[in-house]
Amino acid sequence: MAGNEFARFLVTGGLAALVNLGSRFGFSAVMDYRWAVIAAYLCGMTTAWILSRLFVFQASGRSRREEFLRFGLVNLVAAAQVWLVSVGLAEYAFPAVGFTFHPEAVAHAIGVVIPVFTSYLGHKHFSFARRKTA
């Protein structure tokens, strides 16, 4: 099971990224792009936590609440990466180079992919790390 862990993480992360990206389009209909990226990230994060618990990582021995809080801390770092890349590309880099093909969608997709490795390591060694017993 552990040998396929990163592959399972990528698949579950891909599904969560689809939730993230898809929900951002819906949120963009009712709120500013910057806030829509954050709201969509929360939808994707919750999906990722559920799928990670079910299919990727072994039970940590912690409560679901504690695991979700730890998962959230790792995702705060990832969310900052996603937001900075998404907004930086859509509002600054793409206009500077004249990129006009769905700039918000492309920027957000790139932003969602950026934290894959840092998130995996954070979840493996912190969010779902086995509780040490005395």
From TrEMBL:
It is a multi-pass membrane protein. The chain crosses the membrane at residues 7-27, 33-56, 68-85, 105-122. It is found in: Membrane. It comes from the Bacteria. InterPro entries: GtrA_CellWall_Glycosyl, GtrA_DPMS_TM. Signal peptide: none annotated. Keywords: Membrane, Transmembrane, Transmembrane helix. The keyword ATP-binding does not apply. Its main location: membrane. It holds the Pfam family GtrA_DPMS_TM. Residues 8-90 form the GtrA/DPMS transmembrane domain. The keyword Transmembrane helix applies. Belongs to the GtrA family. This is GtrA family protein. It comes from Azospirillum oleiclasticum. The lineage of its organism: Bacteria, Pseudomonadati, Pseudomonadota, Alphaproteobacteria, Rhodospirillales.
